[in-house]
Design brief:
6-stranded antiparallel β-sheet; 13 strands; 42% strand; elongated
Length: 200
């Protein structure tokens, strides 16, 4: 956005008003025989930056429309014009019913610990237990996704998982065709997100 510069000459005072985002250099060239000009300038305003906020240690949310995927029904990156509502972010994933469907994302933690994984999902028509949960390529559970009334009626499934310091792979893998299509909105990981303590 370009700078907006306004000037005003009134009662022997020339005023310049500049609307600008960020640093800017201003040069004013004057000429003439006028005297009694201002020689003492007001003390410039000192801008003090705010204190750095504390490190965020709360839950982390990962949107399904940003997952890596294979053999899913559809990745909806903009859900505005679909008939599914009440999702977070920009869209959702139609994981679908395929026996070879899979989706994964990556979660970084600073400590080896147990974490709570909350999966926001919907599945209309039937309960399904045809999707395995893998952590770092190891199968840890086969969650039972309880039927919801519609794809827009999202539910939360909680699972305790062990994560290792560093980058962890959280993956959903179908183990057989499902009776009803699974929708994934996001996952939330809750636990010890304190920064790592430096060692000497």
């Amino acid at each position: 956005m370009p700078s907006v510069v306004k000037t005003n000459w009134s009662n022997g005072v020339f005023e310049v008003i500049v609307e600008h985002n960020g640093p800017v250099d201003i040069e004013i060239n004057c000429a003439g025989a006028a005297d009694k000009h201002l020689v003492h300038h007001p003390t410039p305003t000192v801008v003090t930056p705010p204190e750095r906020p504390a490190f965020y240690t709360g839950p982390r949310q990962y949107e399904a429309e940003h997952f890596e995927y294979k053999n899913i029904a559809e990745l909806v990156t903009n859900g505005v014009h679909t008939d599914v509502y009440n999702y977070t972010g920009q869209g959702y994933m139609r994981f679908g019913r395929d026996a070879d469907a899979r989706a994964r994302t990556y979660v970084d933690v600073n400590h080896d610990d147990l974490y709570t994984l909350r999966i926001k999902y919907s599945v209309a028509g039937a309960d399904i237990d045809t999707v395995d949960l893998y952590i770092n390529s190891e199968k840890v559970a086969t969650p039972k996704f309880i039927q919801t009334t519609s794809p827009s009626d999202w539910a939360i499934l909680e699972q305790e998982v062990a994560l290792a310091k560093g980058t962890n792979i959280i993956e959903f893998k179908a183990n057989s065709p499902s009776e009803s299509p699974l929708y994934l909105d996001h996952i939330v990981v809750d636990g010890d997100f304190r920064p790592a303590v430096a060692t000497q």
